């Protein structure tokens, strides 16, 4: 018997916003192909995420290559030991660029512990303050650090006017409810399609559509049925289908609501 043919990527009526990916990991030919294929399936806005001092400039340059690409500025917890006053000043300087829509990817990662936890905490707090000072939303990474993530976030919730998103949400129900209660969004990606990710599907089920975002985290976390291949924004329709199934709602209704969320958070556009 031959191999089972994978499903074609569905195309829905409502355009989709990719709120979290890493386009700078691609070479020029790959980028051109990804952008073309994403457009074909209705992805009309893409946010490519900064993670380190090395790519703060690169993602801005990349965002200027196409009208449908935006970006962020921030240092990932894996790179927190590279954050210093000069890096902080560069992030602040870049936040005035019209292609920059958030401070991120910032936060805590206790799974790998690549950087001392005290350093991660300090850098997370400093970047949250940058977001406060510049009235920007944040893109938060948290892994196996629920308690400390909340201990830090709750000190900023009253002054972080535009809140943000806890991206690639895999944390517990308690952190989810606390963040939702303070007006944050939760970002869901291909993990929701994984066989062993029932914990994530339970959080999806408990998250109001009004506080949900779609993302891929490409080139990582490719959704079923293309798991094993490099991820890309054009796989977002599969993730949307899974979320609609979990929420027991029409796919177009979910897409319209999530699009409105994305426009309001990152582009300050009411829909």
Write the layout of secondary structure elements.
Layout: E1 16-21, H1 28-40, E2 43-48, H2 56-63, E3 69-73, H3 85-94, E4 100-109, H4 117-133, E5 138-143, H5 146-153, E6 164-166, H6 173-181, E7 185-188, H7 198-206, E8 212-214, H8 236-247, H9 251-267
Parallel strand pairs: 1-2, 2-3, 3-4, 4-5, 5-6, 6-7, 7-8
Helix pairs in contact: 5-6
Detailed description of the structure:
The chain is built from nine helices and eight strands. With 271 residues, the protein is an alpha/beta fold. It has a single domain (16-267), classed as TIM Barrel, CATH 3.20.20.140. Strands 1-2-3-4-5-6-7-8 form an eight-stranded parallel β-sheet, sandwiched between helices. Helix 5 packs parallel to helix 6 (173-181). The radius of gyration is 18 Å and the shape is globular. The mean pLDDT is 96.
